[in-house]
Design brief:
Helix 4 packs across helix 10. The chain has eleven helices and 17 strands. Helices cover 29% and strands 23% of the residues. The chain starts with a strand and ends with a strand. The protein is of the alpha/beta class. The protein is globular and about 60 Å long.
Length: 345
């Protein structure tokens, strides 16, 4: 499925494209499942990703899992042909200072599958061989695609915030795919987890998931007092990927002394008010996290093995219906991940 111009979901169309060829250090992957990312896919389709670089026709799709088909020349064949793998979607240069420091998520020359190179709304992708990780036996392709980015991201958010077992974590916008994944990882790390949403229907669905110790309506006037009461004065960590100015007031108000706020993306905002005097007096921290790194990916997939972690899957669509998947995300109807299944050939 390609786009030949930016626009609404109707610009996604079926096309026959040549099978890509793996070069040196690369591997050809048969795609089995690909997540639909609200920014890297949906906003990208609409032309709202400022760092996107590609020519038309372009194949979207970043977060995917599949099988090893073929290695390029002079490539270390780490996994046998046919191996089930998950693909790390970010391709770093490996030579800048952040890369040398083990923080490749801050690489100045970062490339992304589906954003600066052809993506995974297709039967095949070509990616660097070092971007592969074997799938645990109990993890399906759909589950792997759903967790490939959000799982390691939630892990690095929490570890950068110095998470400890017994901490209380508040997840703002808990019904999103990143929100549900943050809850999954936080529980695996031994935390109490609160979640917020503004949707009554999503509130009921989140409560049924049994991921959260409490799910609260962030639009209710008394929600801040409820959070403080349930957390004995404030939460240790807030995961706020939303960036809404109104929600930010709740984020900072709910934070305990020495508490930490961590944010990635800020999908609905970007500019918020910050009371530096209050931050200083309470020894609090605000942390921005761009994406995962190798350490967080290793820790996350170990948690998957140790705790049999599963993502929250909202729905799956066939590749031909990817436009409908985009519409579901644009309507904000989802609770958890929307995933595309790519049929075998």
């Amino acid at each position: 499925m390609v786009i030949r111009r930016h626009g609404d979901p109707g610009v996604l169309e079926r096309a026959d494209m040549p099978t890509p060829r793996a070069g040196s250090g690369e591997v050809l992957i048969r795609v089995r499942a690909v997540s639909v990312n609200v920014f890297l896919d949906v906003a990208n389709r609409a032309g709202r990703v400022p760092f996107a670089r590609y020519d038309f026709p372009h194949i979207l799709g970043s977060e995917h899992a599949g099988e090893v088909v073929e290695y390029g020349p002079d490539t270390d064949a780490k996994f046998p042909i046919g191996s089930r793998v998950v693909v790390h979607n970010a391709i770093s240069c490996g030579s800048c200072k952040p890369c040398s420091d083990g923080r490749a998520e801050s690489c100045a020359n970062l490339n992304l599958v589906g954003v600066t190179r052809p993506g995974a709304y297709a039967q095949f992708t070509v990616v660097p061989a070092i971007n592969l990780r074997p799938l645990p036996q109990h993890v399906s392709f759909v589950e792997a695609a759903a967790m490939s980015v959000n799982g390691p991201l939630a892990t690095v958010q929490l570890t950068d915030a110095d998470v400890r077992a017994g901490d209380t974590v508040l997840v703002q916008g808990a019904a999103s795919s990143t929100g549900t994944m943050s809850a999954v990882v936080a529980r695996a790390l031994g935390c109490r987890v609160f979640g917020t949403t503004r949707s009554p229907s999503k509130l009921a669905e989140l409560q049924r998931l049994e991921l959260f110790d409490a799910v609260l309506d962030s639009s209710e006037p008394g929600v801040l007092n409820q959070i403080r009461e349930r957390s004995s004065g404030g939460v240790d960590i807030v995961v706020d990927n939303v960036g809404s100015p109104e929600l930010w007031k709740l984020t900072m108000g709910a934070l305990a002394p020495r508490g930490r706020v961590v944010s990635s993306g800020a999908m609905f905002g970007g500019k918020v008010e910050l009371n530096l005097a209050a931050l200083y007096l309470a020894s609090q921290r605000v942390i921005g996290v761009r994406s995962a790194n190798e350490a967080s990916r290793a820790l996350f997939w170990q948690l998957v093995e140790d705790h049999q972690l599963r993502p929250v899957i909202d729905s799956t669509f066939p590749l031909d219906a990817v436009a409908d998947a985009h519409r579901r995300l644009e309507a904000m109807s989802n609770v958890g991940r929307v995933v595309i299944e790519v049929a075998s050939s």
